[in-house]
Structure formats: C-alpha cells, structure tokens
Amino acid sequence: MKEITKVTPNMQLKLARERRGWSQKYVAQEVGTDAFTVSRWERGATLPSPHFRQQLSTLFDSDLSELGLFMPKQSEVPDQAQAQATVQPEEDGPATPKALFDPAIPPAPANEKSLVGRDEVLRQLKQQLFTGAGKPVSHLALNGLPGVGKTALATTLAYDEEVRAHFSDGILWAGLGYETDLMGQLNHWALVLNSTLPDPLRRNYPEAWAECIHATIGQRHMLLIIDDAWEFKHALALQVGGMHCTHLVTTRFPEIAQRFAPEKAVVVRELADSDARLLLMRLAPEAVQAEPEEVQALTAIVGGLPLALTLLGNYLRVQTYGGQPRRLRAALERLRHVDERLQLSEPQALIGAHPNLSTSTPLSLQAVIGMSDRQISERARTALRALAIFPPKPNTFSEEAAIRINALPVEALDELMDAGLLESSGPARYTLHQTIADYARTQLTDSQVTDRFVHYYVAYVETQVNDDGAISHEYNNILAALEIAFEQQMLPALLQGVRAFAPLLIIRGLYTVAATHLQRFLDAAQALEDVESQATAWLNFGKIAEQRADYASASAHWQQALLLAQQDQLDGLVAEILMELGTLARQQGQPEQAQQFFQQAHTIAHQLGDQYRIGATLRNLGILAREQGQPEQASQFTEEALAAFQQLGNQREIARTLNGLGILARHQGQPEQARQCYEKAVLLFRQVGDQRGVATSLGNLSRIVAIHEGNLQRAHQLYQEALDIFEHLGDRRSSAQVLHGIGSLQWEQGQPEQAERTLQESLRMLREIGDQHTIALTLGELGIHAREQEHLEQASQLLEEAYALFQELKDRRQEAIALRELGALARAQDDPARASQLLHEALTTLHELHDRREEAMAQYELGIVSRQQGKWDEARRLLNEALTTFHAVNDQRTSALAQRELEINEAQKTRLVDD
C-alpha cells in the first residue's frame, strides 16, 4: 500500500485572513505568490517557505505561532541520498506515489540565506514554473556567464518547498558539462525511476532508454533539470518528460537557451553592487569591516560575478582569522593583480563538484573560463584577446570598432556571442565582462592590436568631434586609447587625440581629467618641439582656469599661448586666443580692453580670409555691444555674424548665433522674435546632431514660455528635456545651470520646498565646479525666495553675497538686478529711503543697458515704495510705465501684479481724499 501523509488544515492562518476580510487572492498578491498556493497553505497541503513565512508575518503583523506557521521538527527536505518519497495528497483525494528526488541533485545550500541577490530571478522562475494549473510550461532555460550562479539557482529551485509541492512526483537532475556522457545520464535516470528496458538487446541505444524513461514518467508531474548543457543535441536528448513535466536547462551558451526555450529563456545577470557587497560581508565580515574601501574596489573589479566574489570572500576570510592587519593588507595587495585573482582557487567537495572539473581539480576563474576558451576556434580566441583591450563592462564598444581592431570578420564576434563570452549591449554594440576581459588580457601578445586601437579612436574623436552622441558612446574607449598612447609613448597619436578631445572634456566640466591629459599633451609637445601644440595646450589650460573662475591664471595661460603663437606666426591660433582674452575682459567689466582684443582678432581673420573666425569675432562683438547697452549695434554685429556662417553653410554656428539673437530680442522686450530664434536654433541643432546645442536652446526657450507665455508646465518640460541631455552628456556645469532654472520655475508653480531643494542641489554642484557667475545667480534666487517667505535676515545675507560676486565679476546687468532685489528687501524691512536709493541706482543702469523688462521690474518696485510713502501720483506714473512694458513684452504674470498695485494705489488715494 502506498504511503500517505496526514494533512492538517491551518485554521489559524485561515481565520486570521477572514477576520481581516481578505481574500486568498489579496494575500497572494501582497506576499508575491498565487491564490492556489495560499489555498494549499490553509489546507495544510504544504508549509510556506521561510521567505513566505516572514512575508506572512509582516503582512498580518503577527507572530508565526499566531498564524500556525510552526517549523516542522523533522527536516523539511527529504533525504536525497535515499531518494525518500514525499507525499502531499489533496483534500479528499487519492493517495499519490512517492515523490522521487534524484540523489544527483547537488547538496542544498548551507543555509537559507546563502543565495544573495537572487530573490527576483527566483520569483520569476517560480512564476513561470507554476504558470497554468492544468499543463505546466514544458521548457525553461537559464543562461549566463561562467560563474554567474546558474547551477546554484537550479539547485535552490530543486530544494524549494513550493517547487517540490508543485512537481509532486519528484525532480530529476542531469549534470552534463562539455564532456557529456549521454548514455550514463539516461541510465542514471532509469535507475532512479526503476525503469527497465523491455528489450535488453537495445540497451546500447540512447533512443531506447529515452523512450523507456518517457514511458515510465508517463502522467507524473516532474521537474527535469539539465544542468550545464554545452550542446543543444544533448539537452534535446534528455527531453524525456511527459505532458505534466517541465524541463529546465542551464547553459553558458545563449544560443542553446534560445533554441531550447524560445519564449522562456531567462538571462542570469551578475549581482548588483549592493548584493555583491552583502555577499562579501557574509563571507569575510572582518575583512570588509577592516578595509571597506579596498574590498569595495575588489568588488567592482570582478563585476559582481558570484563565483569570483565567493573565491575572494573565502580567501579573505582565511587571511583574517588570526586578526593580523598586515596579513589582510598583503592579501588585498595580491588581489589587485589580475593573475592572482584568476588563479585564486579552492578544492572541490566530492559531492556536488563542478560537472566540467574532476574532483581533484581546484575551482578557479582561470579553470571555469578556460573551459569555454578551449571550445572556440583559434580565430575566435584571437578575437577575444583583442577585445580585451577595450575597457570592460559596463563599458560598451561598437561592432565597427571591434572588427577594425580585431582585423577579423564579424563572424568571429558571432562565435564569441554564441559561446557566451561576449555580450550584446544593444544594436551593433557589445560588452565584455571584467573577469573574461582579465582572462583574455593576460594572453594578449599582439602589439598591432594596441596600435590599431589607439589610431582608430584618435581618428574617431577627430571625425566625430561635433557629434555629442557619438562621443558619449565611445567616451571610455577614447580615454583608454589616450591612456595607452601615453603609456606606450605614442607621442604623435597622443597629440592628435588630446588636441581634439580636451575641448570636449572642458565643455563637460571634466576639468581634472582634461588637465591631466593636457599636461601629458604639453610634455609631448615640448619633447617634439611642437610650438603650435604647446600654444594649444596653454589655450586649453586657460579655458579650464576661466571655467573655474580663476581669471588671473586664465589670463596668464592665454598670454603664454599668445606669445608662442605670435612667435611662430600661427595667425589663426592668435585670433582664437585673442577672442578668449576679449571674452575674459568683457566678463570682468573691461569693455574697452575687450573691444581691442575682438577687433584685433577680427582684423587677423579678415587678413586670413577665415570666414569662420570672422563670424566668431562678430558674434563676440555683438555680445559686447549688447552688454554695453548698444542694442542697435549688437543687432548689426550679430546679424553680420549670422550672414558669415550662412555663407559657410555652417548650421551649428548659425544655430549658436540665433541663440544670441534670441537673447538680444528677449532683453529688448521682443519675446515672440526671441521664441522664433530659439525654436529655429533647436531645429538646426537637432539636424546636425548637436545635443548640447539642443539643450542650450531648450533652456533659453523655456524662459520665454514661462515668463512671456505663462505656460509653466510646458516650460518645466523643456527644462527637463534639457537637463536629461546635459546629464547624459556628463555636462555637470550645464546641468547645474538648468537645475537653477527648474528651481525658479518650481517657485513660480507654488512648490517652495521643492524649489529650495533643487536650488540648493544646483548651488552644491556649482560650488564644486567653481562657476562663480551661476553661483551668484542661484544665491540671488534663494535670496528672493527667502525675502518672499519673510526670512529677511537670511535674504539679506544671500542677496549681499550675490551682489558682491557680480561686482567682482563686473557683470553690470546682474549687478543692477541684485541691487534692485536689495531695494525690494529694504522695502520689506520698512526702510523706504534705502529702498528708493537702491532702486533708482538699479533703474539707471538697466535703462542704460536697454533691458526693458528688468527696467520695468525696477519701476514696479519703485512704484510700490512711492505708494507706501503716500506719493500717489509718482506711484501711478511708475506703475503705469512698468505695466506698459509688461504688456509689450507679454509678461502676463507680472502685468497682473502691476495692475493690482495700481488698483491698490488708487483705492488708498481715494480713501485718503474721502477722509
């Protein structure tokens, strides 16, 4: 008679659910399973796993004992060595045969928490295994890198209570490896199933055993795990289950996984950083606590690969048991070397050893990766070693680069992909895991690979210098090429690459990285006695200093560059340096000096017939004229610059000049014209693929949309799009500037707390970068917000600091605006005399600069001061003038405020007359 286990319903769990009015479906959704499983728990057909016991305890806010979730006194897992049966009959149902659990299943993990960071993939796998109450999914596949933990996942599933309950007739296990004994596996399964061939004469035929096993399984509900399949035909040969069975294959080969389970192939990824740290913490807690930064660096080096982390953790644990810091530090130093990490090994147990290694062979990364390496062709091996020159995952590289640097056909990449050694990272892009790259790099001996890599990326950065997207994709590869050029003393290539790449690094705010490469560039130029490159180095050093607001150093660097360029009669470079000196003089409030520099550059450009530099100098002269309050001349210069770039057909510079015209139009109270300029600039930048230009124009456009159209939601969308682009490009300075705009907008939208957080984040980034101008703008914005929230002392500190910075920077326009805001603060502090003085001073400057809107804002503030002083007629005049301008520039929000102040003024005057 077949053995039957006694089923005891869990009434405590059921009553706890019903008292709360919850359905089984609701409980299932909350803990991450299905209603059928909850029903089985309540019927006592199975006990929840430790994970689900904890989930239920949390959901019901009750102890396990209150829910009837006691741990059984005997082992929950049957004795695998004896393949003991586990029987779980349904209520009122007939007894079932013993469940067969293959003794070949590797030993269970030492404890229930040993598998770190795999909860989600286990949940996903179980969900797929349990799909369909009637007919289970027939095929599943796990695919991933060598050492990623595919076998560990399959083993965990084999011991999972819910999986065993679902496959009530048992689980079979086949460990294949690259030297598969197919007949041996079939014979083993036949033995476990007590299956006998009807025709002994066919015992040497695999198909005979397959048919026999299939017939024996029949209608049973079983899980057949086929671990470490190296050939599709072997996985297919072991597909012997019946209609109620699921076949689960694990393999390092993506092709096998896709062919075996086209719709149910799951890729097992490396551990996330947090999970990798947790695993090391569990394996070697003393090492992690003693040297957290060193251990964290090692975690990153091995790229979250569980096998590598396990080997590292076990090794470090041994090194720390004696409590000697010296020994741990020595171990960490050894592990920095690739060879040491690859050779790190530990002996295997006799039971559950790796299917591809004899029990006498220690388990190591070298051995595990080497298995795959030995199975591919010589051509693919050559390609793998060449690809190791690329920075490893998460970096990616293009198919074109891989082919050019390999000097091999694309089929070599296909073979590496099929072998699971190379990963896809999007259309025509690839990535190589850190440990595989380490393995291949130790065997790279072809020096031509290095030459091809450096020259490919030097040429790439030169040809793609204006394509932000292309440069962003290959950023790490370009840096790697320049590093190799420096280490190998490939000086001409180094000069060529840094000359093109350094300006892009500066634009992105990566000043330290840029300075490092520029110093190498300068040293190489001096060694080669290349004066032009020396001058170029000093030109770029000056740009870094200027971006950091170190204007004295910027001027000194540019003067050094100018001296070298003039000595060697490098007229084009002279003109470029003069433009930088002119811009610096303009920013420091030295318009006459700036004019001289720009005119000199303009003259040289004309002499050279250099239409590009002619346009650039005219654009700079236009900006200077605009800031000097000469809008007509500014328009003339900028229009001439636009014509020069249009003659060249340079769409990028046309777009940049349109941005300048838009700013000019906005300052002159012509918002519609400004909007048209910005929109056309966006269109042109998109056409030429200049993402940075797109983002800059979107930022400008958002101001028009917010202030003059009153569409704050649309303005926020434009700002967000600009921010996304700058963050993607790694341009921290521009990102911080856009955050400033978003913070201002959030204030207008009535979100003061969010605005404060955004502006403070912008300020933090700007201080790190050293952008003094935008720091001052942000301080001013925070000061205005503090004033409007009646935090007057804080407002005073912020606005005074902003005003002092603008004075130091000699920015007349922003200095006047800061004065105006200080005047408004004095009004709030009940100091009308000081308010009037500051506002009149600001009004005079803004009038000279022809900045209509900002001048009107000063008139508006003065009008309020006059009203508060009882000067009704003066207040009316000032407020009417301001209102007229606000209407002209279509500033709807401030128009409404001015109209309200006029009404208050008239009402107060009338009340006084009546009294």
Describe it.
This protein is mainly alpha-helical and 915 residues long. Among the domains are: 74 residues, Orthogonal Bundle (434 Repressor (Amino-terminal Domain)), CATH 1.10.260; 191 residues, 3-Layer(aba) Sandwich (Rossmann fold); 105 residues; 70 residues, Arc Repressor Mutant, subunit A; 80 residues, Serine Threonine Protein Phosphatase 5, Tetratricopeptide repeat; 95 residues, Serine Threonine Protein Phosphatase 5, Tetratricopeptide repeat, CATH 1.25.40. It is built from 46 helices and 11 strands. The strands form 3 sheets. It has a 6-stranded parallel β-sheet, sandwiched between helices. Strands 9-11-10 form a 3-stranded antiparallel β-sheet. α28 runs parallel beside α30. It is globular, with a radius of gyration of 37 Å. It starts with 10 loop residues before the first helix and ends with a helix. Keywords: Coiled coil.
Q: What does the overall shape look like?
A: globular
Major β-sheet profile: 6 strands, parallel
The CATH class designation of the domain at 77-267 is: Alpha Beta
> For the residues shown, what is the average pLDDT?
85
Indicate the radius of gyration in whole angstroms: 37 Å
The CATH architecture of the domain at 77-267: 3-Layer(aba) Sandwich
Low-pLDDT stretches: 1-7, 71-96
N→C terminal distance: 112 Å
**SS-derived structural category:** mainly alpha
Say what the CATH topology of the domain at 77-267 is.
Rossmann fold
Strand order of the largest sheet: 1-3-4-5-2-6
How many β-strands, per DSSP?
A: 11
Residue fraction in strands: under 5%
- Percent helix range: 55-70%
CATH homologous superfamily caption of the domain at 77-267 = P-loop containing nucleotide triphosphate hydrolases
- Per DSSP, the total helix count is 46
Pfam family, one: NB-ARC
Protein name: HTH cro/C1-type domain-containing protein
Organism: Dictyobacter arantiisoli
Region (Disordered): 77-96
